[in-house]
Every structure is written in structure tokens, then in C-alpha cells.
Amino acid sequence: MSRWLLVAVLGYGTVAGAGTRLELSGYTDGSGAITVLHRGDSVDPYFAMQALLLAYDNGMDISGSAEMFVNWLLPQQKPDGTFDRFCHGADRKWVSCKTADADDSLLAIWMRLLETMPLQLRTIPAWAKSHSISEASLDHLFQPSRGIYMVSPLYLHGLFMDNLEVWSLNVHSKQPVRVAAADKLARAINETFWDAEKKRFLVSTQLEQKTQAQAFYPDKVAQIFPMLVDFPVPGGDSRSYYRNWMKTHRAEWLRQGDADYPWGLLAVLAIRQGDQSSARCWIRGAAPLRHGSRWAITDDISYQILVNKGIAAAPKADPCK
């Protein structure tokens, strides 16, 4: 499963605890770990944190689940600030079993999750230390020649969507130095990844991706990704940009659940854009997948957000194309 699936944090400015409590039955246990799949045997911190932030940014109460998750994950942080992925061991305890896909985006969303709980961040020394270590580790991935962030010390290329996540962390910070850094990073992102000739964003600084066939993920998702983190879109008209993407890719998106994960966060974006039709079609097609092998934690959070907003499944008469 692609880590991009759960990438976005939507609807900035909401207050945690202001709405319905997040329901994680089957995705968490008494330890605080949050699994990728319902009753799953693996924990990817990236997916768990994106799910929590998606709920938080859409007005759901994540307070208990988020604090438990942080307290579970924090002792697993490595000295360099990075995190692994985890699997159930023979004794059903969580053990490190894989390295993370990318350090830059993971560090950025970890810092932002900590920042959603400012009291704990101020008063719990271990939290503050972790935030500081993470910030230093992220700074180490900055590539001055391009002005963007690299994936990790081992993979010295930059990814478009990763850098948007770092931008998102900085632009919504209350610290002037980080807001200024976001402005510089935004310019570098556009200079590095916007292909003016083809009028699209490149997904990576790797040269070979320019000639590869475009798949729904990552190429087509990358074009809508700026809207998922409120990054200014080319031309500045986000409404038209959204409509054009949906006109071209809506049917393909709604079919993703046939063989892959259904990309629920795009349904949340649809609601933000006043596009209830697309959100209703998503619920109709994706709801039968709920808690199955092609239904990830952020799909469930997306579903909960839509239901809490009163969005019902499209009627059978709607062709949903």
C-alpha cells in the first residue's frame, strides 16, 4: 500500500475536541498503537498520524487516542529522530520490522501532531525533547542547492508531496521563522517540481519519472495534492483547478476501490469544495469495503467525517461517473 494514500491534513483551524469523538475500535489496542488495517498486524506511524490529523482538522475529538499514540510511539523513536514501522511479534507485542518509507514527511507530521497538544508539549520533557530531535533531523534533510527536502540520508532525491507536507507544517506554525521558511520552500517547490511545458507537477526529482507512464498514484494524485494541504494551485483559482481535476479523473478515482484502496480523503476534499455529489458517490462505492483488506485507517476516518456531516450514499439511479 502506498504511503501517499493517507497523506493529507484537511480543514486547518478547527479545535480538537470540538466535535464527535474519533472511533478507533478495531484499529487500536490498550497500548495506544494504531494499526493500518482493521484488526491488523502492522503499525505504520505515518498512516496513524495522518489519520489522527485528518480527524483533528475536521473537528473531531482525537484527544485521548492521540495522546495514547504519542506515548506509545515516543519510546520507539530512534536516536536520529526517525521511526520504524512495527509488526506483531511472536508474543503479540509490537516490534520494529521495517524502516519508514520516507523520513522527511514522517518527521513533519510527527511534529505537527505534537503541536496539536500544546499543553503536553510544554509540560512533558520527553515530548519537548522528541520535538527538538525531530526538528534537527528534518533540518538535516534540507538540500540547499535546490531549497527542498530529501527523502532520507540514504535516498538523496526529493519528492513533491513530501515537501508539501513539510511546507504545511511550517506555514501553519505560529513561529515567524518557520512561516518565513515556508515561503522560501513554496518557491523552491514550484521551481523544482512544476513542469511548465506539460503543465503538471513532477512527483520526484528523479529524472526517469519524466518519461514513465502516468498512473493514478502517484502522478494523478500529485496534481490534486496541493489542494489537500492548501498549497496555492497554479493560476490561483482553486475552484476551477478542483473542477478540472475531477472532470478528468473522477471516474478513475471512484473505481480505485475495485482493486486498491478507495482514497477516502478525496471525498473529504470534495465536501470542502461543496461537491456533495462526488462524496455521496464515494460512500456508495466504498462503504461495502469498510474494515476489509482494502480499507485503511484514513479511509475509515474519511467515512466517519462524511457521516458526521450528514453525507449519505448516492442513490442507485445516480450513474456516479
Produce the secondary structure layout.
Elements: E1 42-43, H1 45-57, H2 63-73, E2 84-88, E3 94-99, H3 103-115, H4 118-123, H5 125-140, E4 142-143, E5 148-149, H6 160-171, H7 176-193, E6 194-195, E7 200-201, H8 216-228, H9 238-254, H10 265-272, H11 276-286, H12 297-308
Helix pairs in contact: 1-3, 1-12, 3-5, 3-6, 6-7, 8-9, 10-11, 10-12
CATH topology call: Glycosyltransferase
Write down the Rg. Answer: 19 Å
Number of helices: 12
Alpha-beta classification = mainly alpha
Helicity level: 40-55%
SSE order: EHHEEHHHEEHHEEHHHHH
Shape from CA axes? globular
Strand order of the largest sheet: 1-2-3
Question: What would CATH call the architecture?
Answer: Alpha/alpha barrel
Task: Describe the structure in your own words.
By secondary structure, the protein is mostly helical. The protein has helices spanning 45-57, 63-73, 103-115, 118-123, 125-140, 160-171, 176-193, 216-228, 238-254, 265-272, 276-286, 297-308, and strands at 42-43, 84-88, 94-99, 142-143, 148-149, 194-195, 200-201. It has a single domain, classed as Glycosyltransferase (Alpha/alpha barrel). It is built from twelve helices and seven strands. The protein has a three-stranded antiparallel β-sheet. Strands 4-5 form a two-stranded antiparallel sheet. A two-stranded antiparallel sheet has the order 6-7. A hairpin with a 4-residue loop joins strand 6 (194-195) and strand 7 (200-201).
